[in-house]
Amino acid sequence: MRYLAFLLMGLISIPASALTTVNLYKTEVVIDQTQVDADAKARALGMQNVIVRATGDKNAADNEVIQKALSKYNQYLNQFSYGQNNDVSTISMQFSAPQIRSLITQAQLPFWLENRANILVWLVEETAYERTISWEHSDSKVLHQLKAESLVRGLPITVPVGDFDDITGLEISDLWGGFIKPISLASSRYPTDAVLVVKAQGDDLRWTLYDQNAYNMLQSQKAPMTGSASGSAAATDMIDKISDYYANKNSVLVGSESSQTVLAAFESIKNANDFFSLEKRLKALSSVASLDIIKIQGQEVIFNVHLLATEEDFEQEVLRIAQVQKAKIQEVPQPTVQTPMLQASTVEQATSVSESQAPSVGTTEPAGVNSVVVSDLSQQGAVTEPVPVVKTLRFTWLD
Q: Which residues constitute the signal peptide according to the record (predicted)?
């Protein structure tokens, strides 16, 4: 029984995926009233912040396409409101997600997907007298800088709350010494994807990033990522390096000619309202860069979808739409065709197949099934090679 209890405790402690969905398109900017056209400059800066967060590239605003777009910020702005923060005027802005994604594609910049790794941050600060752990609500300059920069870069972080379990579950010396086992055990109560240990001595930071969840820290042979930073902007530099690491790891690049695409067919589209509702929902998906309408016939619509993620990610996002379910497909067995030996003259005649015989983009044949096209020379026993059918993901629209 004792061993069974330990096993159950171990299973319970394994954290689920902690990926966090980041709102890439909302930002708040201070309005510098000392500048000419202060409001316009604040809006352009807000759009620049959104581009940096969405691409994971701090230099994205230097891109020529982005530079042109920044002067037309109102075309990308959905809504805004004014406020006050510490006695200074601010403007809060929400930009259009489809338009920003389209702009990023046009600029040939990477897109850092909205679902991002959540990082648990253990921060230990050393003063002349002692070492202390900075908890979620600690009044720490380093912690405030760390939080502010992570918000700018769109890097989700979690700081331990500092309750009884935290205080009694981990010694400061364990963090300072980098002892993995106690750090892993103390971190396992938080659903995070990575663990970051930061040691601060004045303006000097040394940090270690374990790019796996707490449970896997003990199981993995993967070496942690380490680094250091100094000066008044040390916390900012550290978050920039970690953000760059995850952006490079998880970004996708969609080109106008080389983007990954997939055909998606939707049945039971009965009227214009159904069509426009479906199109709007598809364009809003984080895995979708843009859509092309390939075919509308009867109650079926087929889109060519330019992806910002994998086919699997797109399919999962589509199936989260309440009015969509996966279409039921009847499996069609692939015919077996024996190709006889042909005379040379017959082979020459059978080398081409008319375009009308090839399967169209809008074929209703199930995904993954190949069709065999028989030429006009079938009387002579000549059969062409199987022609692959374009893979199509099929869904049904529900009323």
A: 1-18
Beta strands per DSSP E along the chain: 20-21, 26-30, 77-85, 88-95, 110-112, 115-116, 119-126, 131-134, 157-158, 194-201, 204-210, 225-230, 251-253, 261-267, 288-297, 300-307, 324-326, 392-397
Q: Which class is 254-333+340-399 in CATH?
A: alpha beta
Instruction: Give the C-alpha separation, 269 to 296, whole Å.
Output: 9
Report yes or no: 74 and 43 within 8 Å, Cβ to Cβ: yes
pTM for the predicted model, two decimal places: 0.64
Beta partners for 148?
none
Give the start-to-end residue ranges of the domains of the chain.
20-111, 117-251, 254-333+340-399
Going residue by residue through the chain (399 aa), what tens digit of pLDDT does each one get? 333 333 333 333 344 456 788 999 999 999 998 888 999 999 999 999 999 999 999 999 998 888 888 988 998 999 999 998 888 999 999 999 988 988 898 788 999 988 899 999 999 999 888 999 999 999 999 999 999 999 999 999 999 999 999 999 999 999 999 999 999 999 999 988 999 999 999 899 999 999 998 888 888 778 899 999 999 999 999 999 999 999 999 888 765 544 578 999 999 999 999 999 999 889 888 677 678 899 999 999 999 987 766 788 888 889 989 889 998 765 445 455 444 444 444 434 444 433 444 334 444 444 443 333 333 433 444 444 444 456 789 999 987
- Return the CATH architecture of domain 117-251: 3-Layer(aba) Sandwich (3.40)
**Cα gap 52→66, rounded to integer Å:** 11
- What distances in angstroms separate CA 311 from CA 249, 318, 363, one per listed residue? 18, 11, 19
CB of 30 closer than 8 Å to CB of 88:
yes
- What is the C-alpha separation between 47 and 27, in angstroms, rounded? 8
